[in-house]
Amino acid sequence: MAVDEIVTNPSLKMALEISKQTRDQAIQLLELASSQSPSPLSQEFQLQISKQQKLLLTYLAQLRGYHRDAHVGARETKALTAEARQEVDRLHLQLQNLYYEQRHLQGEIAACESYDHKYQSLPLISVEQFLAENPQHADLDEVALTIARINHEHSERLALEEQRQGLLKKKQSLISDNKKRKEDLANLDKDLEKFIDAAKPIQKTFEKVV
Asked: Is the dihedral of CA 202, 205, 207, 210 positive or negative?
């Protein structure tokens, strides 16, 4: 494949064109210079050489300018390519994360679907007894009826817990009263002992009199 078919950038195509013209001009200058003998050159020939040299220098200056532009463009393209590669890598990593998250969620869904729900082991009253006590739920479907039975069990347990807490408070109150009575009896024993000790001198006095 020819270079002209590979290179499509207008600036690079112009640089190739100038390069070709520079090469042709250099060859033409060499051929002109070699067409004369080493003997002293005529002034007209020197003018031709000078003219061709100036034209070659003009082509070289243009070629340097296109080369500089191509170098700057290559660096910019390289930077843009690096940014695009980073973006592609970021998107690829994000896609991988989404794929792993999808697999994780699929596993969670499968685990939920096969999970042995605790409500299945709750000691719920039978459907017949529940409907007999709560006929307003007779038209519910299976899921809604199960939820209603669970809520009923929950309310019953709350009521039992409230009764238990009340009995516990009553028990604590009785324990506190018994403790206070024991303390009162202990204090009474101490006071009685003090009274007996205080009465001993009087008892001795009576014994002497008798």
From this structure: negative
